[in-house]
Specification:
The structure is a single chain. With about 350 residues, this protein is of the alpha/beta class. Helices cover about 40% and strands about 15% of the residues. The strands form 4 sheets. The protein has a 4-stranded parallel sheet, sandwiched between helices. Strands 8-7-9-10 form a 4-stranded parallel sheet. It has a 4-stranded parallel sheet with strand order 12-11-13-14, covered by helices on one side. Strand 3, helix 2 and strand 4 form a beta-alpha-beta unit. Helix 1 runs parallel beside helix 14. It is globular and about 55 Å long. Bound molecules: 1,3-dihydroxyacetonephosphate and iron/sulfur cluster. The site of 1,3-dihydroxyacetonephosphate has 12 residues, from helix 3.
Length: about 350
């Protein structure tokens, strides 16, 4: 395990190595997928997967009538399902959001240890103290947080909707306390001009992108468009042609005329990009420049904890169910629902529904 020390005496974040799953032959994979589909049907369950999970899981979610999406659409899709069980393949905050929105449903995940450096770096007690110190600020938290942190917020946002919501608050003259991703917050502040106070969190995956190496790759591929997720540091965002949520980046690959794309986000997204635009060339933005300590190399180690193998196991055992304290659920659902209502009334993300 490697670790990152956060400033302001926040907890040290243990970043696990990227999990290695035993490789499966084609016939083993087919048999496993069949078993999972049968279990899903028997349990009236649906798969809700993120674009960063591996290609097998994304394909299975699509084949079985589930969804593959960004975190905003995952929340929306899960809440709209009739199915009694949601099987969330992603990281823990995604499973918790699904449960908060649908407390009557059973929500299970392949691995409850699949967390997120943003969530880990924002403990609810310390965050609550921070909010108490700034009572004149509207509290806006990124979806990549615990249920307790969401319960302390006024608004929850995802990367797909953060900018319009903060713009809306700024136009009303509200000051924003933003947590936990300082890079996304910085980007949102730069575009919206909002008065914002930041919690010092970051994503260990996006922090690995290296600006000098990116400049070099851009010189080698002068016609390539650079696509950047806004959890990346400013010097990466500054080099972007498109900055946006995972859905927005996938859309850019299929809609832009460029043949080549340099992509600064988790490599899991290549599955959907390639599916949407098979003739385009995708290049991973560089992570390990000279002297760099590559912690996660553009592959989120927590997203990597989802695989066909543990998905089948969890459906068989019924383990790994998400439970949320009802008092927390009652408070956390309010800012999440506020975000979903804002998305609906402002028609945000709806056109990309389902598959980018
Ligand atoms: P999206 O909301 O863009 O899918 O991002 C979620 C995430 O965790 C990115 O690292
Ligand atoms: Fe969290 Fe970063 Fe992984 Fe996304 S990629 S889940 S922000 S650690």
């Amino acid at each position: 395990m490697s670790s990152q020390q956060s400033p302001l005496n926040l907890p040290t974040i243990d970043v696990p190595p990227h999990p290695e799953w035993p490789s499966l032959s084609d016939s083993e994979k087919t048999a496993l997928k069949r078993r999972i589909i049968k279990l899903l049907e028997q349990q009236n369950a649906v798969l809700v997967a993120h674009y960063y999970t591996n290609a097998d899981l994304q394909a299975l979610a699509e084949e079985s009538g589930g969804c593959v999406a960004d975190s905003l659409e995952m929340a929306r899709f899960g809440a709209a399902q009739e199915a009694q069980t949601l099987v969330v393949c992603g990281v823990r905050f995604m499973g918790e959001t699904a449960k908060i929105l649908s407390p009557e449903k059973r929500v299970i995940m392949p691995d409850l240890g699949a967390t997120c450096s943003l969530d880990e770096g924002c403990p609810a007690d310390k965050f609550s103290d921070f909010c108490d110190q700034h009572p004149d600020h509207t509290v806006v938290v990124y979806a990549n947080t615990s249920a307790e942190v969401k319960a302390r917020s006024d608004w929850v946002v995802t990367s797909g909707i953060a900018l319009p919501i903060v713009k809306y608050l700024a136009e009303k003259g509200e000051k924003v306390l933003w947590a936990p991703d300082r890079h996304l917050g910085n980007y949102v502040q730069g575009v919206s001009g909002a008065e914002m106070l930041f919690w010092p969190g970051s994503c260990v995956v996006h922090e690995e992108f290296k600006s000098v190496a990116l400049e070099r790759i851009k010189r080698l591929h002068p016609d390539a468009a650079v696509l950047v997720h806004p959890e990346s540091p400013q010097n990466i965002v500054d080099q972007a042609d498109v900055i946006g949520s995972t859905t927005a980046l996938i859309k850019a690959v299929s809609e832009m005329k460029n043949k080549e794309f340099i992509v600064a986000t988790d490599g899991g997204i290549f599955y959907k990009m390639q599916q949407m635009a098979p003739d385009k060339v995708l290049i991973e933005a560089p992570t390990a420049g000279e002297g760099a300590t590559c912690i996660s190399c553009a592959h989120c180690p927590w997203m990597g904890m989802n695989a066909l193998q543990n998905l089948a196991e969890v459906l068989e055992s019924g383990a790994n169910e998400i439970h949320i304290d009802p008092a927390i659920q009652e408070r956390a659902v309010v800012p999440i629902q506020r975000m979903l209502d804002f998305a609906r009334t402002h028609d945000i993300g709806m056109k990309e529904k389902g598959n980018a």
